[in-house]
Design a protein that fits this description.
- It is a single chain.
- This protein has 144 residues and is of the alpha+beta class.
- It contains 2 helices and 6 strands, in the order ααββββββ.
- Strands 1, 2, 3, 4, 5 and 6 form a 6-stranded mixed β-sheet that branches.
- A hairpin with a 2-residue loop joins strand 4 and strand 5.
- The longest helix is centred in the first third of the chain and has 19 residues.
- The chain is globular, with a radius of gyration of 17 Å.
- The relative contact order is 0.16.
């Protein structure tokens, strides 16, 4: 019985350790930043690589997680405010802040603009579990 309890404790602790493991010095993020962002992108916004492609993505200043989005089934392209073409298209984007982690999961801010005056922001609670990261709930924080 003690061996089973020790094994359960080791598994629980290893889950916490992976949540806080650094990606590396290039972005200052944590090992799960990409997975947390992908969970919100897929579960909250419904983005994918076929019929619901995401708009360009931008991150908070100083936060650039350098994710392999295809690994998560997403096709994000970086937001470029200076891009040519239709100016209305430059007003379409989705943004993500740096996730804030605690012992139960993470909280992340996100926003989406569909056009000049059509957008909204959310703060989502994302839970870490055996199946990976899943969105618990998102509360609206701003509307344009």
């Amino acid at each position: 019985m003690k061996a089973v309890l020790a094994l359960c404790a080791a598994v629980a602790l290893s889950g916490c350790a992976t949540t806080l493991a650094p990606d590396g010095p290039s972005n200052g993020g944590t090992g799960d930043d990409c997975a947390v962002i992908a969970a919100v992108a897929k579960e909250h916004y419904g983005f994918n690589t076929t019929d619901r492609l995401p708009p360009p993505v931008k991150f908070d200043p100083g936060f650039d997680p350098q994710c392999d989005w295809s690994h998560f089934g997403l096709a994000f392209e970086p937001y470029d405010e200076q891009a040519g073409g239709d100016p209305r298209e430059r007003q379409k984007w989705v943004s993500f802040g740096r996730p804030i982690y605690d012992g139960r999961g993470a909280s992340i801010r996100s926003g989406i603009m569909h056009g000049p005056l059509a957008g909204m922001g959310v703060r989502c609670r994302v839970i870490s579990g055996f199946a990976g990261w899943t969105v618990g709930e998102c509360e609206q924080t701003w509307v344009s």
